[in-house]
Amino acid sequence: MIHINNTSTYHKEQITTLGWELTVCNMLYPENSPCREVIKKNAPYGTLLCEFLSSFIDMKQVKTILEAGGGYGFLMKDFLACCPHVQAIMVDISPAMLAEQKKNIRGNVSFIHSDFLELDNALLSDIDLIICNEIIGDFITVCDITHDILESFALDEIKECKRLINEYNLEIKANPFNFNLGALLAIEKICKAGTKYIYISEHSCESESQGEFRECVPVRPTFNPYEIRLFGHSEYTIRFSHLEAVAKKWGYTIHRGVYNDIFGCRMTPKLQFILNSTASAKDEYEILRQFIGDMFTYEYVVCCK
Ligand SMILES: C[S@@+](CC[C@H](N)C(=O)[O-])C[C@H]1O[C@@H](n2cnc3c(N)ncnc32)[C@H](O)[C@@H]1O
């Protein structure tokens, strides 16, 4: 039987801390984080993302950035330090997360309390760059859809899944399958508004560890979004090829890859030892194992118009 994974009540009413879900941005934030030692340059996420996006986007032309689901606001804090001319807008469904962002981000920034999917489209059309970092896995996922259900169910969510599958010719490999309805509606919303640049990153169900990390980091694609159980809620991994199909149809050029393209981890004898050992002798080793796994579990897309 189908079920719908919806995290909005958790985020509106219950979340008080992100401590339970260690995002890559938060792992890299402390200056003494062990993760900083294995990336290409000792810097936080916002700085590295700004440098990475500069290879696709002329950042001088970016005057307004909207970040949806900014958590503690660390990404935007460091992004603004690199691009002080930018006006930032933070949108979050959680009053608790917005309060954290207000503490951490200074300068030309405003805050909107809203579900991203309910945001006025007119606002989006005035934005040059939209950033959705580790948020779209929280949007609605419709789970356990069979081909029969897709054809016969009158539920609005199922009708929307069917519309998106047909309109964007989305490939479905499993039966039953899970469908990232909210994530696809979000990218469709941004594309319709005509925002020039989009950056989205999240856990992927299509990613794969690569190069010197392939043997000791067992990340392989499943092609069906799977559940990640977290404190008080679950999120689902994303089929990035579906996001890509939507943005392509709206005329965007897509750059897609895994987090390690941004952070540039290289194998060292110490890392090899940590990744190959079955038990973690130290907290630092456990953190690094998770971090290196994340380098290949997370994908990003940069969409340019
Ligand atoms: C996993 S956290 C990621 C935080 C941050 N981007 C990071 O990488 O550290 C997800 C964030 O998205 C927000 N969020 C979840 N669902 C949302 C929605 N429908 N609309 C706006 N914000 C949402 C949460 O409140 C939280 O701030």
Description of the structure:
By secondary structure, the protein is an alpha/beta fold. It has one domain (3-304): Rossmann fold (3-Layer(aba) Sandwich), CATH 3.40.50. Helix content is 37%, strand content 20%. Helix 3 (45-53) crosses helix 4 (74-82) and helix 9 (181-193) runs parallel beside helix 10. The N and C termini lie far apart (40 Å). The model has no long low-confidence stretch (mean pLDDT 95). Bound molecules: S-adenosylmethionine (SAM). S-adenosylmethionine binds next to helix 1, helix 2 and strand 3. S-adenosylmethionine is lined by residues 7-8, 11, 15, 18, 21, 23, 25-26, 68-71, 91-94, 97, 115-117, 133-135, 138-139.
SSE layout:
Layout lengths: L2 E3 L2 H7 L9 H5 L16 H9 L10 E5 L5 H9 L4 E6 L2 H10 L4 E5 L7 H5 L3 E5 L7 E5 L1 H6 L3 H12 L9 E3 L1 H13 L3 E7 L23 E4 L2 E4 L3 H10 L3 E6 L1 H4 L5 H8 L6 H15 E7 L1
Parallel strand pairs: 2-3, 2-5, 3-4, 5-8
Antiparallel strand pairs: 1-6, 6-7, 8-12, 9-10, 11-12
Helix pairs in contact: 3-4, 9-10
